[in-house]
Amino acid sequence: MKHVDAAGHVLSGATADSIAHYETAAQQLRCYIGDPVATIDAALAAAPQMVMAHALKAYLHLLGTEPAGLPVARACYEAAARLPADERERGHLEAVRLLSEGRWRAAGRVLEDVAIAWPRDALALQAGHQIDFFRADSRMLLDRIARALPAWSPSIPGYHALLGMHAFGLEETGDYAQAEKQGRAAVELERRDTWAWHAVAHVHEMRNRPADGIAWMSSDVPAWSEDSFFAVHNWWHLALYHLELGAIDEVLRLFDGPVFGKRSTVVLDMIDASAMLWRLHLRGVDVRRRFAELADLWAPIAGAGNYAFNDMHAMMAFVGSGREQEQRSVLEAQRAAMESDADNAEFTRDVGHAATRAIQAFGQGRYAECADLLRPIRSSAHRFGGSHAQRDVIDLTLIEAAFRSGNRALAAALAAERAAVRPASPLARGFVQRSADLRQAA
Question: Would you give the DSSP letter of residue 149?
Fold first, then answer.
């Protein structure tokens, strides 16, 4: 007897009990809620030969860029590779193998082909979408999902996730009106879809509408925060709006509470913590104690060198806390990474190494060097991952470095550039005013 998933795809080695657990885990992943790892383990306990359960467990350990996840994912692949599987399932296993080897681009291409052949394969679409995010491939973030949408309808389980992913792809390619429409539609279908909440949050950030962003995120906080393993990032977005408005006390309250209060050692959560503290540091806020607490969490993986975007954020914590040995460990790991044949060699070589060194230079007061390192990469920074909102920290660091280095002409140019894009931004207006004050003082 063949067992199939909710979209009609064969699930080799499955049982009725394992399918129930598998579908629950898949929905938890689509919404970023609950504990999909425990749920998929229950599926494997019910059916150890279920190929797609092994694949889903591998993705759960790969798509967070956690160094400790790699051996788990490899074990999942080795267990599943020996099992009978159909062509679609073999595609997933090949993508898992490639991701385990750090070959992000090739894995994304395999999943692209899987989704073209089986456009209702929600897991192929979601795993591919996450790979596109980590590679900052904005076109594929959009196109991968747009290709599949005609095969879906609201009656198919998981349709909300397609809309949420489509929304994020639209936002990252600059179609903010349509992105907001799709994201809101996704939330109307499934209020717990935290990726869709996040997509609309990005729209408000990129449009520089912090008040609208606060209103959106405050409209149903439990929906995107309770029992969600994506909650920290969404709290980070809420804090970012308050930072834009200059409400530093509220930013610190959110940081000490939902952003960092639990001292999460999840890498994606630590990235958010680093990114917020660094933005505060650029504004002259004393966050050294908080940096020290965060650096303690980054220290065990300082030498991981598996993803350049992580390295830059680890360096922020080590610079902010004065941890020189860990700073050296990050740079040494990056030099080793650039000698490998994994995609991270390119991420690090093209952008990550310069960005990470620039953060260190800023922390050591070498502001002109920091600016010199950042200027050549700012237009190609997408090559090492993240979103437009996350990579904005590069521009913010460059602007501040220009001011502190005494390069008045560069500071004025960068201030004018930012004000042109964000004319209502208090921060941008502040940069312009600083530039004017410097000219008058000259």
Answer: G
pLDDT tens figures, 192-213: 999 999 999 999 999 999 999 9
Distance between CA atoms of residues 391 and 385, nearest Å: 8
**119: which DSSP letter?**
T
Q: What is the pLDDT of residue 375?
A: 98
Tell me if residue 10 falls in helix, strand or coil.
strand
* Statement: residue 1 has pLDDT above 70: no
Residues whose CB falls within 8 Å of the CB of residue 67, separated by 6 or more in sequence, listed in order: 301, 304, 306
401, two tokens: 């470095």
Element (H, E) at 238: helix 231-244
pTM: 0.96
- What is the DSSP secondary-structure string of 377-437? TGGGGGGG---HHHHHHHHHHHHHHHHHHT-HHHHHHHHHHHHHH-TT-HHHHHHHHHHHH
- Is the separation of the CB atoms in 235 and 259 below 8 Å? yes
141 contacts 168 by C-beta, under 8 angstroms: yes
- Residue 204: which of 162, 244, 251 has the closest Cα? 244
The pLDDT tens digits for 380-433 are: 999 999 999 999 999 999 999 999 999 999 999 999 999 999 999 999 999 999
List C-alpha distances in Å: 21 to 32, 51, 142: 16, 14, 30
HSE of 32, CA atoms in CB hemisphere, 13 A: 25
CA dihedral 209, 314, 366, 377 (to 10 degrees): -60
**Chain segment 24-63, per-residue pLDDT in tens:** 999 999 999 999 999 999 999 999 999 999 999 999 999 9
Judged by phi (left if over 0) then psi (alpha if -120 to 50, else beta), residue 174 lies in left
pLDDT at residue 47, as a whole number: 98
What pLDDT does residue 439 have?
A: 85
DSSP 243-268: HHTT-HHHHHHHIIIIITTT----HH
Query: In degrees, to the nearest 5, what angle opens at C-alpha 246 toward C-alphas 242 and 251?
Result: 45
